[in-house]
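look at this fold:
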Amino acid sequence: MAERMIVVGGDAAGMSAASQARRRRDRADLEIVAFERGHFTSYSACGIPYWISGLVPERDQLVARTPDAFRDDFDIDVRMRHEVTAIDLDRREVVARDLDGDREVRVGFDTLVYATGARPVQPEWARDDVAGVFGVQTLDDGAALLDWLEREPRPRHAVVVGGGYVGVEMAEALVQRGLSVQLVEQAAQPMSTVDPDMGELVAEAMRGTGIGIRTGMEVTGLKERDGRIAAVVTTEGPIPADVVVLGLGVRPNTALAEAAGLPIGPSGGIRVDRRMRVPGVPGVWAAGDCVESLHRVSGMPVHVPLGTHANKQGRVIGINIGGGYATFPGVIGTAVTKVCELEVGRTGLRERDAADAGFEFVTVLAESTNRAGYYPGAQQMTVKLIAERPSGRLLGAQIVGRSEAAKRIDALAVALWNGMTVDEMTALDLGYAPPYAPVWDPVLIAARKAVDALAGTGR
């Protein structure tokens, strides 16, 4: 009899695991059943803001592989609109509810892949049944928001609550649709994934496009009129709103795991080993936004919900279940985003992360341009480096600038991944031509400044 592999969650991590396992084992040896409560598999949630803005015209452009493709090409039994409600480790079975047929099914497993992703943070005030308040976690969420925006009378005033990646990208998307947008953030600056001085550069750019930035302000409730959103209530008074988008971040979706007794780590994600196995629970694996990972710089467990990690972790599981050997080596938190014409990149530790991890460090800011200063289109770029004292080892980096700024973070991520010092980085053989960089690339200028700061000669 074939071994049965159950996958809970049909997006990046789960379906990467399923397809990779299938590539290595045929149906006679391994039966694969995947449960997904939504309407889509393997889609780009990161692309939703660009679909909302109209830059990506069709929803299906965000779908990498449909359920039928998994069924036909990989012989995977994909059960859409099935929500797993319980995992019974003693009986080795999952309990799922068919959301369309309103019936319960029980399916046994030999191997279980837990890939439920993350759930959006939703405060009590956002749980009221007020029409016009949206999250943007799934394609179904995006479709609901688009439907609202295109109804008559069309909304004119939007409030985005939360200034993280989703918040700032959705603020831009709504501006591009012609709405007046206010972004409300409880912290002193938007983009808490970078340090406050870099976050202020982001805020300035957003204000320059007409987005109102309300920082240091807490949302406490909603006002409605005839069941529809009318205003967002804050600690500094109401803000009129015809539509509200929540961008308050996410938490690991671990309710099923906790109920089943799977171990939860200090970050709130499921604990896994390097092969993505759940320790102490034979035959159970986990991957994606529901797990915690090792931060390669701080050495601490962290929750970093990114599709890049989810795909890699799922692939590791699939290789291992398929009979191979693979490990996931950890994360350094590299991420990029675009806010209007501004590009933002970060990798490694922020200042507060480095302090919390017990490092002694120096920080430097370097101002440069993306191209040779005399070449048409040259624009400003700010690079921030955090380096360990006295070793000079790179601990973290952030970049804010316009054209060609964000992807420079990749060179810094490679240096960080490999434990380079800022002194070693000054000799990196980076590409040069006037249309692409000054003769001293901004990365190299920042590294030189960090070397000077460590020596006590920088200003």
Remarks:
- The CA atoms of residues 32 and 166 lie 33 Å apart.
- The two ends are 71 Å apart (CA to CA).
